[in-house]
């Protein structure tokens, strides 16, 4: 693996850093309190090419590599993990899948507006009875001439309320189990597609999460992605890349926690000197810095493998496992370093903890990452 970033990768990272500071940071606290979706910010991210980072320019994207995507995701999430997840779902779940398996017509109709940021996508896999056990899809798509009729319910759908395009897994042949699952691209105004109440969440409150239900929703066969029965493969392979995005989001939270703790430790005095002079605090900062660096190397390794066309599912799972654990631990330690001040909103670190927890849950829980890693190891 080459550890040197190219000039382009550095420029992308710096642009994301400036954008996050200037355009995102001013409204982060208020949007978190009010659980407000960052419409204007997402629109501007699109104009900067951040909503379709790895999509080729001919399909409306920026044509960057996965390493650049990690660098940008970390910078954005360091300031606001809600904006990070909205960006991650659009980039690495929805755009990736369509770019990989879509026909030219589907790319023209769905990918171009998604990659340019004109439209927003969401990824509908989880169901009330199919979370970690994703093969157990109950949503059905029954063929009816040139159409499919979809019935079922999806939950925990990030971007669900505000998406324009829904990337949906549904069973087209129950007899075949997971090999009977297919993927459909559905417009938000399709008859029979309804979104439920927005979840009132612990963290990433400025992003929206809701249920999406399909009640005799008619979808034309041109909106089938790939072919019938390919849906589970599409979902799994797409999630391998999605995990790189969420791992980078977790890195952003972990790094933000480290920086906040370091800054506070240098200014806060106790026992007549800055608390950064105390070994108890120094050891915490050293552990936080070591873990975030280790996690970053794993995540960049996964992205680098992806860019080289090498297998990356195991590396992505390892990166997500460690980065999400580090995000939670670093946020907890940042609160501890701040003492009572860490427990109040003004000092930001309480939000880092609330935002960090979900990275151990969505796009595959930490336990699922261990399943993916151990299966890959034992197969080798
Ligand atoms: N990459 C590629 N293929 C994979 C894969 C991976 N990581 N994991 C499984 N597969 C393939 C298997 O090779 C197998 O294919 P074949 O039948 O062709 O051989 C098929 O999928 C089924 O796999 P298993 O037989 O191993 O099935 P299983 O039930 O024992 O395990 C699982 C499957 C790995 C647990 C899978 O269900 C899984 O990954 N669950 C987690 C689902 C998840 O991540 N959900 C996130 C929701 S989306 C989200 O959070 C987005 C958001 O809004 C932020």
Features of the shown structure:
380 residues; binds acetoacetyl-coenzyme A; alpha+beta; 4-stranded antiparallel beta sheet; Butyryl-CoA Dehydrogenase, subunit A, domain 3; single chain; Butyryl-CoA Dehydrogenase, subunit A, domain 2; Butyryl-Coa Dehydrogenase, subunit A, domain 1; 4-stranded mixed beta sheet; globular
Amount of beta strand: 5-15%
Task: List the ligand species.
Answer: acetoacetyl-coenzyme A
CATH topology of the largest domain: Butyryl-CoA Dehydrogenase, subunit A, domain 3
Helix and strand content put the structural class at alpha+beta
**Main CATH class of the largest domain:** Mainly Alpha
Give the strand tally: 10
Task: Kindly state the percentage of residues in helix.
Answer: 40-55%
**What's the overall average pLDDT, rounded?**
97
Instruction: Give the strand order of the largest sheet, numbering strands 1, 2, ... along the chain.
Output: 1-4-5-8
**How would you sum up the global shape?**
globular
Cα distance spanning the termini: 20 Å
Could you say how many structural domains there are in total? 3
Q: Please tell me the CATH architecture of the largest domain by its name.
A: Up-down Bundle
What is the topology?
Elements: H1 7-34, H2 39-47, H3 66-79, H4 81-101, H5 104-115, E1 121-124, E2 140-144, E3 147-158, E4 165-171, E5 181-187, E6 193-195, E7 209-220, E8 224-225, H6 231-267, E9 269-270, E10 273-274, H7 279-308, H8 313-338, H9 349-357, H10 366-379
Parallel strand pairs: 1-4
Antiparallel strand pairs: 2-3, 3-7, 4-5, 5-8, 6-7, 9-10
Helix pairs in contact: 1-3, 3-4, 3-6, 3-7, 4-5, 4-6, 6-7, 6-8, 6-9, 7-8, 8-9, 8-10
Bound molecules: acetoacetyl-coenzyme A.
Acetoacetyl-coenzyme A binds at residues 89, 123, 125-126, 132, 134-135, 158, 178, 232, 236-237, 239-240, 313, 362-364, 368, 371-372.
């Amino acid at each position: 693996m080459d550890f040197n970033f190219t000039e382009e990768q550095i420029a992308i990272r710096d642009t994301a850093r400036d954008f996050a500071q200037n355009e995102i940071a001013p409204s982060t606290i208020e949007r978190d309190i009010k659980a407000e979706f960052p419409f204007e910010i997402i629109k501007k991210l699109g104009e900067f090419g951040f909503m379709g980072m790895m999509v080729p320019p001919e399909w409306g994207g920026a044509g960057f590599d996965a390493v650049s995507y990690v660098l940008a995701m970390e910078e954005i999430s360091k300031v606001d993990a809600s904006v990070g997840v909205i960006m991650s779902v659009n980039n690495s779940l929805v755009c990736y899948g369509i770019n990989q398996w879509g026909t030219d017509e589907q790319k023209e109709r769905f990918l171009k507006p998604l990659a340019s940021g004109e439209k927003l996508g969401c990824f509908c896999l989880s169901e009330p009875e199919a979370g970690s056990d994703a093969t157990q899809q109950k949503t059905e798509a029954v063929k009816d001439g040139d159409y499919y009729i979809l019935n079922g319910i999806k939950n925990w759908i990030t971007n669900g309320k505000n998406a324009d395009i829904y990337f949906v897994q549904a069973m087209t042949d129950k007899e075949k189990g997971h090999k009977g699952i297919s993927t459909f691209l559905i417009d938000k105004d399709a008859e029979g597609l309804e979104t439920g109440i927005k979840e009132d969440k612990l963290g990433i409150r400025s992003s929206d999460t809701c249920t999406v239900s399909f009640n005799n929703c008619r979808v034309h066969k041109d909106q089938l992605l790939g072919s019938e029965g390919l849906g589970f493969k599409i979902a799994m392979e797409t999630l391998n890349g999605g995990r790189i995005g969420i791992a980078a989001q977790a890195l952003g939270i972990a790094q933000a926690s480290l920086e906040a703790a370091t800054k506070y430790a240098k200014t806060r005095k106790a026992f007549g000197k800055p608390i950064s002079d105390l070994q108890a605090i120094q050891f915490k900062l050293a552990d936080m810095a070591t873990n975030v660096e280790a996690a970053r190397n794993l995540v960049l390794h996964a992205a680098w493998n992806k860019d080289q066309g090498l297998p990356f599912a195991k590396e992505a799972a390892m990166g997500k496992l460690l980065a999400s654990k580090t995000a939670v631990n670093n946020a907890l330690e940042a609160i501890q370093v701040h003492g009572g001040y860490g427990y109040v909103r003004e000092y930001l670190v309480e939000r880092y903890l609330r935002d960090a927890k979900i990275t151990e849950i969505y796009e595959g829980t930490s336990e699922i990452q261990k399943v993916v890693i151990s299966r890959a190891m034992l197969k080798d």
